[in-house]
C-alpha cells in the first residue's frame, strides 16, 4: 500500500508510517489484522474474514491437526463476525485431505 503504483491507483493510505506487520489501519478506517490458525482474536470483530491455507500440507494427514483447525474455526473464528447473517468468511486453500 505504500508503493507508488498503489498510491497512483487508490486514494486510501496507511494511517501511520510505522506499521506492525500483523496489524494496521488505513486512513479510511479499514483494518487488517493477521494471526495464525489457533491464534488469539480476543476483542476483535470483523465484517469479512479471510483464511489463507489453514492447514500445512505436512499436517493435513493428522486427524488431531485437522480437528484443531476445525475447532479453532468453529469456536473462535466464527464468533468474531460482527453480524453472522451479513458477514463473510473466505477460505483459500488447496485440497489436502
Q: What is the helix tally? A: 2
Largest sheet: 2 strands, antiparallel
Please tell me how large the radius of gyration is. 16 Å
The neighbouring-strand order within the major sheet is 1-2
Distance between the termini: 35 Å
Write down the overall mean pLDDT. 85
Provide structural commentary:
By secondary structure, the chain is of the alpha+beta class. It has helices spanning 4-9, 63-77, and strands at residues 23-25, 31-33, 48-52, 88-92. The strands form two sheets. Strands 1-2 form a two-stranded antiparallel sheet. A two-stranded parallel ribbon has the order 3-4. It is globular, with a radius of gyration of 16 Å. The mean pLDDT is 85.
